[in-house]
Amino acid sequence: MANQVEARAVGTMLLYDEPMAKHTSWRTGGPARYFFQPEDLADLVDFLRSLPEGEPILWVGLGSNLLVRDGGFPGTVVSLKGRLDAIERLEGGRLRVGAGAACARVAREAARAGLCGVAFLAGIPGTMGGALAMNAGAFGGETWDRVVRVRTIDRGGTLRWRLPQEYETGYRRVRGPAGEWFVGCELQLERGDSSLESARIQSLLRQRGARQPIGEASAGSTFRNPPGDHAARLIEAAGLKGFAIGAAQVSPKHANFIINRGGATAADIEAVIRHVRQVVAERFGVLLEPEVKIVGEPA
Protein backbone atom coordinates (compact mmCIF):
# COMPACT_ATOMS: atom_id res chain seq x y z
CA MET A 1 0.00 0.00 0.00
CA ALA A 2 1.25 3.46 -0.83
CA ASN A 3 2.33 5.59 2.07
CA GLN A 4 2.16 9.37 1.88
CA VAL A 5 5.43 10.92 2.97
CA GLU A 6 6.23 14.49 3.88
CA ALA A 7 5.15 17.00 1.25
CA ARG A 8 7.00 20.29 0.95
CA ALA A 9 4.04 22.52 0.13
CA VAL A 10 0.26 22.56 0.28
CA GLY A 11 -1.07 20.70 -2.76
CA THR A 12 2.12 18.74 -3.34
CA MET A 13 1.79 14.95 -3.26
CA LEU A 14 4.69 12.56 -2.89
CA LEU A 15 3.93 8.86 -2.52
CA TYR A 16 6.15 5.84 -2.10
CA ASP A 17 5.55 2.48 -3.78
CA GLU A 18 2.43 3.77 -5.51
CA PRO A 19 0.51 1.26 -7.72
CA MET A 20 0.46 2.55 -11.28
CA ALA A 21 -2.77 0.61 -11.87
CA LYS A 22 -4.41 3.61 -10.18
CA HIS A 23 -2.90 6.03 -12.69
CA THR A 24 -3.12 4.32 -16.09
CA SER A 25 -6.13 3.96 -18.35
CA TRP A 26 -5.40 0.22 -18.74
CA ARG A 27 -5.92 -0.04 -14.95
CA THR A 28 -2.93 -2.27 -14.49
CA GLY A 29 0.76 -1.91 -13.66
CA GLY A 30 3.15 -2.35 -10.77
CA PRO A 31 4.29 0.28 -8.27
CA ALA A 32 6.36 3.38 -8.90
CA ARG A 33 9.16 3.80 -6.38
CA TYR A 34 8.13 7.45 -6.00
CA PHE A 35 5.03 9.18 -7.35
CA PHE A 36 5.07 12.97 -7.36
CA GLN A 37 2.44 15.59 -8.20
CA PRO A 38 3.57 19.23 -8.03
CA GLU A 39 1.51 22.04 -6.62
CA ASP A 40 2.67 24.40 -9.34
CA LEU A 41 5.54 25.06 -11.71
CA ALA A 42 7.84 26.45 -8.99
CA ASP A 43 7.23 23.32 -6.93
CA LEU A 44 8.13 21.16 -9.93
CA VAL A 45 11.36 23.13 -10.47
CA ASP A 46 12.38 22.63 -6.83
CA PHE A 47 11.56 18.93 -6.92
CA LEU A 48 13.53 18.17 -10.07
CA ARG A 49 16.54 20.00 -8.65
CA SER A 50 16.34 17.81 -5.54
CA LEU A 51 16.49 14.49 -7.42
CA PRO A 52 19.72 12.49 -7.47
CA GLU A 53 21.61 12.57 -10.75
CA GLY A 54 20.62 9.60 -12.86
CA GLU A 55 17.26 9.03 -11.15
CA PRO A 56 14.88 7.54 -13.79
CA ILE A 57 11.91 9.86 -14.42
CA LEU A 58 8.60 8.96 -16.08
CA TRP A 59 6.12 11.72 -16.92
CA VAL A 60 2.44 10.80 -16.81
CA GLY A 61 -0.73 12.71 -17.59
CA LEU A 62 -4.02 10.81 -17.71
CA GLY A 63 -2.12 7.53 -18.05
CA SER A 64 -3.34 6.70 -21.55
CA ASN A 65 -0.90 5.40 -24.16
CA LEU A 66 1.14 3.82 -21.35
CA LEU A 67 1.78 0.28 -20.10
CA VAL A 68 3.72 -0.10 -16.84
CA ARG A 69 4.97 -3.65 -16.36
CA ASP A 70 3.90 -5.62 -13.29
CA GLY A 71 7.26 -5.21 -11.56
CA GLY A 72 6.72 -1.46 -11.52
CA PHE A 73 8.83 1.55 -12.39
CA PRO A 74 12.17 1.76 -10.53
CA GLY A 75 12.32 5.52 -10.36
CA THR A 76 10.17 8.62 -9.98
CA VAL A 77 6.85 9.18 -11.74
CA VAL A 78 5.93 12.84 -12.21
CA SER A 79 2.17 13.12 -12.67
CA LEU A 80 0.60 16.28 -14.08
CA LYS A 81 -2.98 15.04 -13.83
CA GLY A 82 -4.93 18.00 -12.52
CA ARG A 83 -1.71 20.04 -12.22
CA LEU A 84 -0.20 22.67 -14.55
CA ASP A 85 -3.53 22.60 -16.38
CA ALA A 86 -4.33 26.28 -16.87
CA ILE A 87 -5.82 27.42 -20.19
CA GLU A 88 -5.38 31.12 -20.98
CA ARG A 89 -6.68 33.05 -23.96
CA LEU A 90 -4.11 35.41 -25.49
CA GLU A 91 -4.38 38.07 -28.17
CA GLY A 92 -4.48 37.13 -31.84
CA GLY A 93 -6.39 33.88 -31.49
CA ARG A 94 -3.80 32.12 -29.36
CA LEU A 95 -4.27 29.81 -26.39
CA ARG A 96 -1.64 29.20 -23.73
CA VAL A 97 -2.12 25.70 -22.35
CA GLY A 98 -0.47 23.88 -19.46
CA ALA A 99 0.86 20.38 -20.09
CA GLY A 100 -1.53 18.90 -17.53
CA ALA A 101 -4.68 20.14 -19.28
CA ALA A 102 -6.80 17.35 -20.72
CA CYS A 103 -6.96 17.51 -24.52
CA ALA A 104 -10.75 17.23 -24.52
CA ARG A 105 -10.98 20.21 -22.17
CA VAL A 106 -8.72 22.26 -24.45
CA ALA A 107 -11.09 21.56 -27.36
CA ARG A 108 -14.13 22.57 -25.30
CA GLU A 109 -12.55 25.74 -23.86
CA ALA A 110 -11.38 26.84 -27.31
CA ALA A 111 -14.88 26.37 -28.72
CA ARG A 112 -16.44 28.36 -25.87
CA ALA A 113 -14.02 31.19 -26.64
CA GLY A 114 -15.02 31.15 -30.31
CA LEU A 115 -11.68 29.73 -31.41
CA CYS A 116 -11.53 26.98 -34.03
CA GLY A 117 -8.97 24.44 -35.18
CA VAL A 118 -8.52 22.02 -32.30
CA ALA A 119 -11.86 20.19 -32.24
CA PHE A 120 -9.87 17.03 -33.03
CA LEU A 121 -8.32 17.19 -29.54
CA ALA A 122 -11.68 16.08 -28.15
CA GLY A 123 -10.89 12.61 -29.50
CA ILE A 124 -7.53 12.30 -27.72
CA PRO A 125 -7.77 10.66 -24.26
CA GLY A 126 -4.72 12.35 -22.76
CA THR A 127 -3.16 15.64 -21.72
CA MET A 128 -1.47 18.32 -23.80
CA GLY A 129 1.92 17.23 -22.50
CA GLY A 130 1.42 13.76 -23.93
CA ALA A 131 -0.07 15.15 -27.13
CA LEU A 132 3.01 17.32 -27.62
CA ALA A 133 5.38 14.45 -26.88
CA MET A 134 3.93 12.15 -29.55
CA ASN A 135 2.22 14.59 -31.95
CA ALA A 136 -1.10 13.03 -31.08
CA GLY A 137 -3.84 13.29 -33.67
CA ALA A 138 -7.42 12.34 -34.46
CA PHE A 139 -9.97 12.97 -37.19
CA GLY A 140 -7.30 14.29 -39.57
CA GLY A 141 -5.77 16.83 -37.18
CA GLU A 142 -2.37 16.71 -35.46
CA THR A 143 -1.17 18.59 -32.38
CA TRP A 144 1.94 20.20 -33.83
CA ASP A 145 -0.02 21.71 -36.72
CA ARG A 146 -1.22 24.27 -34.17
CA VAL A 147 1.88 24.80 -32.03
CA VAL A 148 3.41 28.30 -31.99
CA ARG A 149 5.91 27.59 -29.22
CA VAL A 150 6.39 25.17 -26.34
CA ARG A 151 7.70 25.54 -22.81
CA THR A 152 10.06 22.88 -21.52
CA ILE A 153 11.86 21.92 -18.33
CA ASP A 154 14.97 19.83 -17.81
CA ARG A 155 15.98 17.74 -14.81
CA GLY A 156 17.97 20.68 -13.45
CA GLY A 157 14.75 22.69 -13.30
CA THR A 158 15.68 25.09 -16.14
CA LEU A 159 12.65 26.42 -18.02
CA ARG A 160 12.82 27.38 -21.70
CA TRP A 161 10.51 28.54 -24.49
CA ARG A 162 11.24 26.75 -27.77
CA LEU A 163 9.94 27.13 -31.33
CA PRO A 164 8.55 24.40 -33.61
CA GLN A 165 11.56 24.62 -35.91
CA GLU A 166 13.68 23.25 -33.06
CA TYR A 167 11.79 19.93 -33.37
CA GLU A 168 11.38 17.23 -35.98
CA THR A 169 7.76 16.13 -36.05
CA GLY A 170 5.87 13.53 -38.05
CA TYR A 171 3.16 10.93 -37.67
CA ARG A 172 3.13 10.08 -33.92
CA ARG A 173 6.74 11.20 -33.68
CA VAL A 174 8.50 14.18 -32.09
CA ARG A 175 12.25 14.63 -31.75
CA GLY A 176 13.79 17.65 -30.06
CA PRO A 177 16.42 18.73 -27.55
CA ALA A 178 17.37 15.81 -25.31
CA GLY A 179 16.61 15.76 -21.61
CA GLU A 180 13.66 18.14 -21.69
CA TRP A 181 9.95 17.65 -21.01
CA PHE A 182 6.97 19.75 -22.01
CA VAL A 183 5.22 21.83 -19.35
CA GLY A 184 3.12 23.99 -21.66
CA CYS A 185 2.56 25.41 -25.12
CA GLU A 186 0.88 28.13 -27.12
CA LEU A 187 -1.50 27.20 -29.93
CA GLN A 188 -2.58 29.32 -32.89
CA LEU A 189 -6.30 29.10 -33.65
CA GLU A 190 -8.80 30.93 -35.86
CA ARG A 191 -11.78 32.93 -34.75
CA GLY A 192 -15.08 31.31 -35.60
CA ASP A 193 -18.58 30.47 -34.46
CA SER A 194 -18.63 29.00 -30.95
CA SER A 195 -21.85 27.04 -31.42
CA LEU A 196 -20.69 25.54 -34.73
CA GLU A 197 -17.35 24.48 -33.24
CA SER A 198 -19.10 22.94 -30.22
CA ALA A 199 -21.42 21.06 -32.57
CA ARG A 200 -18.41 19.80 -34.50
CA ILE A 201 -16.87 18.49 -31.27
CA GLN A 202 -20.07 16.65 -30.40
CA SER A 203 -20.19 15.14 -33.89
CA LEU A 204 -16.60 13.91 -33.60
CA LEU A 205 -17.31 12.41 -30.18
CA ARG A 206 -20.33 10.55 -31.56
CA GLN A 207 -18.15 9.12 -34.33
CA ARG A 208 -15.56 8.08 -31.76
CA GLY A 209 -18.19 6.42 -29.57
CA ALA A 210 -19.59 4.50 -32.53
CA ARG A 211 -16.20 3.14 -33.62
CA GLN A 212 -14.15 2.74 -30.44
CA PRO A 213 -14.66 0.82 -27.17
CA ILE A 214 -15.36 3.91 -25.07
CA GLY A 215 -15.93 2.96 -21.44
CA GLU A 216 -13.60 -0.04 -21.62
CA ALA A 217 -10.17 0.04 -19.97
CA SER A 218 -7.74 0.62 -22.83
CA ALA A 219 -4.80 2.85 -23.71
CA GLY A 220 -6.27 4.17 -26.94
CA SER A 221 -4.84 2.97 -30.24
CA THR A 222 -2.26 0.26 -29.57
CA PHE A 223 -0.33 0.37 -32.86
CA ARG A 224 0.72 3.09 -35.28
CA ASN A 225 -0.86 2.87 -38.70
CA PRO A 226 1.71 1.58 -41.22
CA PRO A 227 2.24 3.70 -44.35
CA GLY A 228 -0.74 3.45 -46.66
CA ASP A 229 -2.75 1.14 -44.42
CA HIS A 230 -4.51 0.87 -41.08
CA ALA A 231 -3.41 -1.28 -38.18
CA ALA A 232 -7.01 -2.13 -37.33
CA ARG A 233 -7.66 -3.46 -40.85
CA LEU A 234 -4.60 -5.70 -40.74
CA ILE A 235 -5.40 -7.04 -37.28
CA GLU A 236 -9.01 -7.78 -38.21
CA ALA A 237 -7.95 -9.38 -41.51
CA ALA A 238 -5.61 -11.63 -39.54
CA GLY A 239 -8.63 -12.93 -37.62
CA LEU A 240 -7.50 -11.46 -34.30
CA LYS A 241 -10.57 -9.49 -33.26
CA GLY A 242 -11.58 -10.87 -29.87
CA PHE A 243 -8.28 -12.72 -29.33
CA ALA A 244 -7.49 -12.83 -25.62
CA ILE A 245 -4.81 -13.83 -23.16
CA GLY A 246 -6.16 -13.83 -19.63
CA ALA A 247 -8.36 -10.76 -19.29
CA ALA A 248 -6.52 -8.81 -22.01
CA GLN A 249 -8.42 -8.85 -25.30
CA VAL A 250 -8.26 -7.37 -28.78
CA SER A 251 -11.44 -5.32 -28.77
CA PRO A 252 -14.32 -6.92 -30.73
CA LYS A 253 -15.38 -3.36 -31.57
CA HIS A 254 -12.09 -1.92 -32.86
CA ALA A 255 -9.16 -4.20 -33.60
CA ASN A 256 -6.48 -1.59 -32.79
CA PHE A 257 -7.64 -1.39 -29.17
CA ILE A 258 -6.60 -3.90 -26.51
CA ILE A 259 -8.97 -3.83 -23.55
CA ASN A 260 -8.68 -4.97 -19.97
CA ARG A 261 -11.86 -6.93 -19.29
CA GLY A 262 -11.08 -6.88 -15.58
CA GLY A 263 -8.02 -8.20 -13.78
CA ALA A 264 -5.63 -8.27 -16.73
CA THR A 265 -1.96 -8.02 -15.82
CA ALA A 266 0.48 -5.90 -17.75
CA ALA A 267 2.11 -9.17 -18.81
CA ASP A 268 -1.22 -10.31 -20.33
CA ILE A 269 -1.50 -7.10 -22.33
CA GLU A 270 2.11 -7.23 -23.48
CA ALA A 271 1.63 -10.86 -24.55
CA VAL A 272 -1.37 -9.87 -26.67
CA ILE A 273 0.70 -7.09 -28.25
CA ARG A 274 3.49 -9.54 -29.11
CA HIS A 275 1.04 -12.09 -30.54
CA VAL A 276 -0.72 -9.53 -32.72
CA ARG A 277 2.60 -8.28 -34.10
CA GLN A 278 3.77 -11.81 -34.83
CA VAL A 279 0.59 -12.93 -36.60
CA VAL A 280 0.25 -9.77 -38.69
CA ALA A 281 3.93 -10.00 -39.70
CA GLU A 282 3.51 -13.64 -40.71
CA ARG A 283 0.29 -13.03 -42.65
CA PHE A 284 1.05 -9.71 -44.34
CA GLY A 285 4.77 -9.03 -43.95
CA VAL A 286 4.04 -5.87 -41.95
CA LEU A 287 5.63 -5.39 -38.52
CA LEU A 288 3.26 -3.19 -36.55
CA GLU A 289 4.94 -0.62 -34.32
CA PRO A 290 3.35 -0.05 -30.90
CA GLU A 291 1.97 3.44 -30.34
CA VAL A 292 1.85 2.81 -26.58
CA LYS A 293 4.88 3.34 -24.38
CA ILE A 294 5.94 0.23 -22.41
CA VAL A 295 8.08 0.88 -19.33
CA GLY A 296 9.18 -0.76 -16.11
CA GLU A 297 10.25 -4.20 -15.05
CA PRO A 298 8.51 -7.60 -15.31
CA ALA A 299 7.05 -9.09 -12.14
Q: What does this entry show, briefly?
A:
The chain is α+β, with helices and mostly antiparallel strands. The protein folds into three domains: 3-79, Uridine Diphospho-n-acetylenolpyruvylglucosamine Reductase, domain 2; 87-211, Uridine Diphospho-n-acetylenolpyruvylglucosamine Reductase, domain 3; 231-295, Alpha-Beta Complex (Uridine Diphospho-n-acetylenolpyruvylglucosamine Reductase, domain 1).
Question: In words, what does this structure look like?
Answer:
The protein has six helices and 21 strands. By secondary structure, the chain is of the alpha+beta class. The protein folds into three domains: 3-79, Uridine Diphospho-n-acetylenolpyruvylglucosamine Reductase, domain 2, CATH 3.30.43; 87-211, 2-Layer Sandwich (Uridine Diphospho-n-acetylenolpyruvylglucosamine Reductase, domain 3); 231-295, Uridine Diphospho-n-acetylenolpyruvylglucosamine Reductase, domain 1 (Alpha-Beta Complex), CATH 3.90.78. The protein has a five-stranded mixed sheet, with no helix packed on it. Strands 7-8-16-12-13 form a five-stranded antiparallel sheet, sandwiched between helices. Strands 18-19-20 form a three-stranded antiparallel sheet, covered by helices on one side. Strand 10 (137-138) and strand 11 form a beta hairpin. The relative contact order is 0.14.
